[in-house]
TrEMBL record, chain A:
The entry's keywords: Dioxygenase, Oxidoreductase
Gene name of the encoded protein: pcaG
The keyword Ion transport is assigned to this record: no
Enzyme Commission numbers on file: 1.13.11.3
Stretches with biased composition (Low complexity): 15-30
Record-annotated Intradiol ring-cleavage dioxygenases domain positions: 62-129
UniProt name for this protein: Protocatechuate 3,4-dioxygenase subunit alpha
From TrEMBL, chain B:
Protein name: Protocatechuate 3,4-dioxygenase subunit beta
GO annotation (BP), single: 3,4-dihydroxybenzoate catabolic process
PROSITE patterns found in the cross-reference section: INTRADIOL_DIOXYGENAS
Polar residues bias: start-end ranges: 1-15
Class of this enzyme: oxidoreductase
Single GO molecular function: protocatechuate 3,4-dioxygenase activity
Ranges for region Disordered: 1-51
InterPro entries attached to this UniProt entry: Intradiol_dOase_C, Intradiol_dOase_core, Intradiol_RC_Dioxygenase, PCDO_beta_N, Protocat_dOase_b
Amino acid sequence: MPDTNGREAFDATDLPGAHAHAPAHEGPLGQTPSQTVGPFFGYALPYAGGPDVRAAWQPDAVRVHGTVFDGAGDPIPDAIVEIWGADATGRPSTERGSFARDQHGFAGFGRAAVDRDGHYSFTTVKPGAARPGSAPYLLVTVFARGVLHHLSTRAYFGDEPEANEADPLLARVDADRRDTLIAEADAPRSYRFDIRLQGENETVFLDYGTEV
Amino acid sequence: MQRPAQQPELTQATISDEIADRHRAEGDAAASAARPLAAHPRRDFAPYRSTTLRHPTHELVRADPEEIELVSPAFGHTDVAAEEADLTIQHTGEPLGERIIVTGRILDGDGRPVRNQLIEIWQANASGRYVHKRDQHPAPLDPNFTGVGRIITGDDGSYRLTTIKPGAYPWKNHRNAWRPAHIHFSFFGSAFTQRLITQMYFPGDPLFALDPIYQSIVDPAARERLVATYDHDVSEPEWALGYRWDVVLTGPTSTWMEPEDADHA
């Protein structure tokens, strides 16, 4: 029976935070859609030390770098790249403080905005393989204006030909596109991994079952 | 301030027609395949012109997530100071505009909270201007507003931000193109495959129907999920208006098995 204050409609579950104690939703909840990172993330997402996942002076540090290209073959000057990789033994880092850079630790996560020439560069460690029979790789994610939903790929290592040969994901990729997933050694302790969003030698991008 | 020079004559009507055509085509394709409309935007959504050379033309390759993809970087309170959740206290003076509170919860697809994970936000000021050298919109900067914030979610997946309601702003996709007011959000889930960058909008914006970025999501129900709701219980008397926005980060489906006769085409 409505009263003038509408108080009969009051329900404790309407209180802020009350639904925190509600039972889990029946059935899967709808995914929140992606939107482009846009052009104006430059003062928000990059952070000091973001590209330095491992301090460059550490003996196990390697450089992983490359250029992000569009479908016309032109460098994209406003992309932002993230990497996430296991440590040298193949285990993901559980170190708290993924933004913190203390020169000694390894948190596994890096973020680098590309420069005006579309180039990004990380220092990190070469990860170990997650398990016998798979090849080591870094997870690489690309965001940019004009990219409505970020793109994920993997950077495997060109100096691991035997492991790469046996890797189940690489085996599933068409042979003539497999090279787009390989970071090739281009200098001592340095690997080059260019990312082509479209066109000739378009990078193989991955769907982890999250393309809903 | 000077009005900028006239833009090329790609009209809103042309863009709106393209949006309607694509929505119709996506609806027909989903109906004939008896599948739901996609929740995520179409990467090749042509009415948003910047997608033209920036979307892959090959199908994505299905990958089984390995351990590294099933965990996420460990952010924590060493990374983010509590004050970073309030974008109105970063300068000596008060920013101009309508003070708002934005709160909600981050959940996975099963309704479980995404605990202790990082949220990053950035936005235009009340006039629709970003603190960014490439933002040429002739609207005033606000010396008391940078428009950047961060917060770590609570044990119940909750977050609460204080900021200024951003203004709409023009962009150069077509003549007289305006973005609906929005706040950019970046999320980490408990698995790296739940990573999400998106934009939160405000209810009732008349620009929704005209905006090719918002309309790149072809499922109307999914589009609605980017729109916060006004919540009077969140509003604070004599202080700020409240909005609620919950976010769902669906996890990877790890039960997928490669078909026996997988078609590599």
